[in-house]
Amino acid sequence: MFNLGRKKHPLLGIDISSTSIKLVELARTGSYSAGMYRVENAAQEPLPAGCMAEKKVTDIEAVGTVLEKMMGRVRTKAKHAAVAVPGSAAITKTIAMSSALSESEMEAQIQIEADQYIPYPLEEVNLDFDVIGPSAVSTEMVDVLLAASRRENVDNRVAVLEMAGLTAEIVDIETYAMENACALQLARIDEGLEAKTIAVADVGATTTTLHVLHGGIIVYTREQNFGGNQLLDDLQRRYSLSREDALKGLNQPESSPDNSAEASSNLLTKRVLPENAQTEVIGPFKEALAQQVSRALQFFYSASSFGRTDQLILAGGAARLPEIADLVEQRLGFPVQVANPFEDMVLAKHVDRAGLERAAPAMMLAVGLALRGFN
Ligand SMILES: Nc1ncnc2c1ncn2[C@@H]1O[C@H](COP(=O)(O)OP(=O)(O)OP(=O)(O)O)[C@@H](O)[C@H]1O
Ligand SMILES: [Mg+2]
To answer: What residues contact 191, with CB distance under 8 A and at least 6 apart?
Structure first.
């Protein structure tokens, strides 16, 4: 099953990434002034080492067990979910077809012609298509988006959901989930969005993905091997820490003498990272991050004719580094902000605001997937 289709009822958006599972459930509020969506659930749970090979699920059992545990903790009636395969694991192609064809006729024709577009044996892929609108080729044609992914990418994710008692209603591509999540942020730009070029850098644990949107549509995506795991590796090595402690260290706020509440809580919780970790490890990683983003943008500039970017949105767990947006902004020379897909949303009573705000930059994909229940 590979399904780009659109469904009416709310879904759980589930991002199975290289180091954690993120889950989001949204509901419509019906009121524009209060924000269009209410966050019913938002959760994140780390995955044990070795059950993912980057974005590939290699141990269905282990990943499924974590999701099952999460489902036991969130209060939801939802039984359906949307998941996504990475952009690099999917092939998409837009083709023009006669608008006179019925859906089943289209399907039959695509099955016959698919080997022209898909470089794998057809029995090894999941294939789906979606009519996206009138074609520029001719008034009698429509543009049809074909999407294909190797069966294992899709099947392993579906199997993980099944272990937790969920049905995979939508199997999306991360690129589209990101576009969906960005639509919320872009809706805040009141003027001239059609002409704006906006980049999103998702700096995860293993992968940094640069997406570029023009007029709200993703026109470019490129993944590179860079991410927060390198920071955790360095902290572990340098200060002889466990993985857990390195991450705990990043999550401890920096001590600041003018914040007495923070200072006193720091007396109670022993600091994991030494004082000079900032200058020795974290600072250089932030510089490296800025450089990676800058390099990714150079690739985009040389590969496309969209011109300069107007703005950069920084997403992923590494976007939680203190003052990272300021630093990247200085290095790039145009506005940078940290992603917060929940900004205009109201929260259900049981959702913890502070926790949600901390997690927000890494929740873009899960939110984009949860939104598939509405569009
Ligand atoms: N408080 C924090 N400050 C700085 N960095 C953090 C913090 N918390 C987590 N990180 C970094 O974020 C990374 C995880 O980010 P994220 O959840 O986006 O990754 P992922 O989605 O699992 O990875 P990928 O997208 O590569 O599959 C960790 O490797 C860690 O380095
Ligand atoms: Mg990620």
So the answer is: none
Q: How far, in Å, from the CA of 204 to the mean position of ligand 2?
A: 5
Give the tens place of pLDDT for each residue, 3-52. 655 555 669 999 999 999 999 999 998 766 656 899 999 999 999 999 99
Q: Which amino acid is at 341?
A: P
**318 pocket-lining for ligand 1 (C-beta < 6 Å):** yes
Describe the chain by its helix, strand, coil percentages, rounded to 5: 40, 25, 30
CA distance linking residue 151 with residue 1, whole number of Å: 8
Q: In order of start, what are the domains of the chain with their CATH numbers? A: 12-188+343-373 (3.30.420.40), 228-336 (3.30.420.40)
What gap in Å lies between CA 146 and CA 88, rounded to an integer? 15
Per the confidence metrics, is the pTM higher than 0.85? yes
> 229 CA distance to ligand 2 centroid (A)?
12
68-88 burial, b at 16+ Cβ within 10 Å, e below that, comes to eebbeebeeebebbbbbbbbb
